[in-house]
Amino acid sequence: MGMSRSQDRRARPDAVRVVFALPKEDEDWPPAASERVWAFPIAENRVEVANIPFFVRGIALGDVVRTEVDDEGVLWAREAVQGSNNCTIRVAVLRDGALAGDRRAVLDMFAPLGVEGEGIAQSALVALNVPPTVDLPAVRDLLRRGESQGWWDYEEGCTTPAWRALAGQA
């Protein structure tokens, strides 16, 4: 899916994998019991999330998370302790829509707005990182337009007060 800044940063030698437990929302979602994301150690029992989560709710690229190591040496995420002010938006590209499930088309549409993302091939899913410095109303408008045109469905995996204020949800 091409390189995003989060993928470049994962090349750091101190990168670790941290596991987030995924509570079931319904029988089909999320499609796994846990999600592994790349992170960088920043203090004892603290890591900075280094890639965009696909399924974890309430976590975005750059957030700081408290961790715990289990008896088998697995690093588990326990709670967010500092937000990055980034939003995570998940876009499910509709295979029968005009984009025909093309994840690259979605990434190309959001790139001019300063929004990066990563895709999962098997599910036609794109996770977008929306930094606080971009034109949030333009990003929201594109998300809504794509949904109304039948290009994709989307959900807000992690939002900020500035994002929620756009819809009067603050």
From TrEMBL:
**Its domain of life?**
Bacteria
Matches recorded under InterPro entries: DUF4265 (IPR025361)
Protein's organism:
Actinomadura keratinilytica
What protein name is recorded for this chain?
DUF4265 domain-containing protein
